[in-house]
Design brief:
single chain, 390 residues, alpha/beta, two-stranded parallel ribbon, 13 helices, globular
Length: 390
């Protein structure tokens, strides 16, 4: 997942500066209509607020009238809520930095650090969560609920295959997994300290982010823009098997709405929920639509390791930035091509059941193809990529 530099502390599962809202949702689903025993307001702290997941969650809570604080190491441009500059990896720094959050009732935990081994992932990410919880306890915060994010790794998606459609009741794997360690820590703390928790499992979160290159939306957008600039057709760069496998994504705005819902819905207390757009697709269905949207010719798939092919176009991107008046974003911060290669070479069906969330009351859904195209347009409108008429 959901880093500034994957070898250093990252603020979240994904980067900063989300796109503005595009699809207006039915206000009847918002917290304003919560039942009397379902608090509709409070004070939320979003850990990892510089990321696409955290930033969208913070913005959604603020939109609904909550008092919001976001914690991350670096400032969050354009935030309409209070920012706390905190390194959560250091227990003392976390305690001092979160002292101002003594009135926190809800914690949304989206902080994440990438590490190369399972043991290192668990050590560092469990420390992030522990330090945050301990800092809030030290501050005397009246914590009522914590939302924790997981993902497909909980089912073994990173290992090359998992039983699909995955359900929340599926047993854990014998493989070490930092998700399990974080969840165990959180459940123990909840029992001891008297707060509720909910675990959300998205997949392939899409939404604009800078400063974190593990972003599937940006991988497709930048790859398409460079291909078009080179006069080439749009080709799926992964394997034919991956082209035909079922996949799913989670829109960052939808995930934010799920976070708000989970923090105030009694039926969500203590539960795990898969959260996706609610549909599945094959890349074979989407890439011709992407090509048409970008005004490009389309060609059949050609496996190309993006990690080898794309870094050479840093200078070209600088030229494109000047030519099309794009935001000055370092090329290395746009996309982590290793992440895109992994997704485009996953030759198994990646499908999670969202029945449990719907039965519990969260029925939000989106058409993923439409959403991709809307987000591409939003990227162009914000001058992140050239427009379709470039």
């Amino acid at each position: 997942m959901n880093q500034d530099n994957v070898s250093e502390t990252a603020e979240s599962h994904a980067g900063a500066n989300p796109l503005p809202g595009i699809i207006e949702q039915d206000q009847a689903r918002s917290a304003e209509q919560a039942a009397p025993d379902r608090p509709s307001s409070g004070v939320v702290l979003v850990a990892g607020a510089g990321g696409v997941i955290g930033r969208h969650a913070a913005d959604e809570y603020a939109r609904r009238g909550w008092k919001v604080r976001g914690a991350s190491r670096r400032p969050v441009p354009g935030a309409a809520w209070e920012h706390l500059s905190v390194d959560l990896l250091d227990a003392g720094t976390a305690r001092d930095g979160l002292a101002a959050a003594s009135d926190t009732t809800h914690l949304v935990f989206g902080a994440y650090i990438e590490r190369p081994t399972s043991a290192e992932l668990s050590e560092v990410n469990t420390a992030l969560l522990r330090n945050t919880l301990d800092a809030l306890r030290s501050a005397g915060a009246p914590l009522r609920h914590v939302t924790l994010y997981q993902g497909g790794k909980a089912y073994g998606a990173h290992l090359g295959y998992f039983n699909a459609p995955a359900k929340e009741r599926d047993p854990r794997l014998i493989q070490p997994n930092f998700y399990y360690d974080q969840e165990d820590l959180l459940r123990q703390a909840a029992r001891e300290r008297g707060f509720e928790l909910t675990v959300l499992r998205p997949e392939g979160v899409i939404g604009y982010a800078t400063g974190n290159p593990m972003n599937l939306l940006m991988a497709i957008a930048v790859y398409a823009a460079v291909s078009r600039e080179l006069g080439q057709p749009l080709r799926f760069p992964g394997t034919v098997a991956a082209y035909d496998a079922l996949y799913q994504v989670t829109d960052a705005e939808l995930l934010a709405r799920a976070a708000v819902w989970s923090g105030s819905e009694p039926a969500a207390a203590g539960e795990i929920f898969n959260i996706t757009n609610g549909d599945q697709f094959r890349w074979r269905q989407l890439w011709p639509a992407f090509a048409k949207h970008f005004g490009m010719d389309y060609a059949e798939p050609q496996p190309v390791p993006l990690v080898d092919a794309m870094p050479q176009y840093a200078e070209l991107w600088e030229q494109m930035t000047e030519r099309y008046g794009l935001q000055q974003t370092p090329y290395a911060d746009l996309v982590r091509w290793e992440f895109a290669d992994f997704i485009f070479r996953s030759e198994f069906d990646n499908v999670s059941s969202t029945i449990k969330a719907r039965q519990a009351g969260f029925g939000d859904c989106l058409d993923s193809e439409d959403r991709f195209l809307e987000l591409f347009d939003a990227l162009a409108a914000q001058k992140i990529i050239p427009g379709s008429a470039a």
